[in-house]
């Protein structure tokens, strides 16, 4: 549109460009929805639940014997314990004992924290007691294990106690919820 001798005259070329531009603008706005997507199926970010942990202590009360705690952790639902727990796939040494070897020196303790779930099992084959000087095998304790359930070991503490006694080697569990 321009002024030509006192009259406004429409320039159809200019008007066509203006209509085309407005049409593209409206199409863009409706395509992108002004920043909203009515079909958005993504859930908004929510705070994740904190991980549940259990603190595991390994206490070797023996005076001269070191113990390989022979510790196992399973996050699978196990039907037959201890047989299904004490397999190579569940063997756990991360952070356990001297340099992650699973060996706890005489008269010492070690502590780890691990994630705990509703289908959680932990245990030891009883520990393998060895001479603290030579490393010769001296014997084994009795197998001990726990599953998450009525005892509610998640968010608690479990202590595996290893000791040598006159009658042999003993392994017990102490729970603190």
Blueprint of the fold:
Layout: E1 2-4, E2 7-9, H1 12-32, E3 53-60, E4 65-68, E5 71-74, E6 103-104, E7 108-115, E8 121-124, E9 128-131, E10 137-140, E11 144-147, E12 157-165, E13 168-176
Parallel strand pairs: 3-12
Antiparallel strand pairs: 1-2, 3-7, 4-6, 4-9, 5-8, 8-11, 9-10, 12-13
Provide structural commentary.
This protein folds into 2 domains: 2-35; 53-176, Immunoglobulin-like (Sandwich). The strands form 4 sheets. A 4-stranded mixed sheet has the order 7-3-12-13, with no helix packed on it. The chain has a 4-stranded antiparallel sheet with strand order 6-4-9-10, with no helix packed on it. It has a 3-stranded antiparallel sheet with strand order 5-8-11, with no helix packed on it. The chain is elongated and about 105 Å long. The protein has 1 helix and 13 strands. The model has no long low-confidence stretch (mean pLDDT 82). By secondary structure, it is mostly beta strands. The protein starts with a strand and ends with a strand.
Class computed from helices, strands and strand pairing: mainly beta
How many helices in DSSP terms?
Answer: 1
Percentage of residues in strands: 35-45%
The averaged pLDDT comes out at: 82
Instruction: Outline the low-pLDDT stretches.
Output: none
Order of helices and strands: EEHEEEEEEEEEEE
Q: Could you tell me the radius of gyration in angstroms?
A: 35 Å
Count the E strands. 13
Query: Portion of residues in helices?
Result: 10-25%
Q: What fold name stands as the CATH topology of the largest domain? A: Immunoglobulin-like
The main β sheet shows up as: 4 strands, mixed
* Intertermini distance: 84 Å
Counting structural domains, the number is 2
- CATH C-level class of the largest domain is Mainly Beta
Question: Any guess at the CATH architecture of the largest domain?
Answer: Sandwich
* Shape category: elongated
Strand line-up in the sheet with most strands:
7-3-12-13
């Amino acid at each position: 549109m321009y002024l030509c001798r006192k009259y406004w005259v429409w320039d159809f070329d200019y008007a066509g460009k203006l209509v085309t531009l407005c049409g593209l603008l409206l199409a863009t706005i409706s395509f992108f929805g002004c920043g909203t997507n009515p079909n958005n199926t993504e859930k908004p970010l929510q705070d994740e639940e904190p991980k549940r942990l259990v603190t595991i202590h390994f206490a070797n009360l023996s005076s001269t014997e070191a113990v390989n705690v022979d510790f196992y952790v399973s996050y699978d639902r196990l039907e037959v314990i201890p047989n299904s727990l004490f397999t190579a796939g569940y063997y756990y040494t991360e952070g356990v004992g001297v340099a992650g070897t699973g060996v706890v020196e005489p008269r010492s303790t070690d502590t780890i924290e691990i994630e705990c779930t509703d289908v959680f099992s932990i245990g030891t084959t009883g520990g393998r007691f060895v001479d603290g000087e030579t490393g010769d095998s001296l014997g084994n304790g009795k197998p001990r294990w726990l599953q998450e359930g009525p005892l509610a070991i998640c968010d608690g503490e479990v202590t595996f106690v290893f000791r040598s006694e006159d009658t042999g080697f003993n392994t017990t569990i102490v729970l603190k919820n």
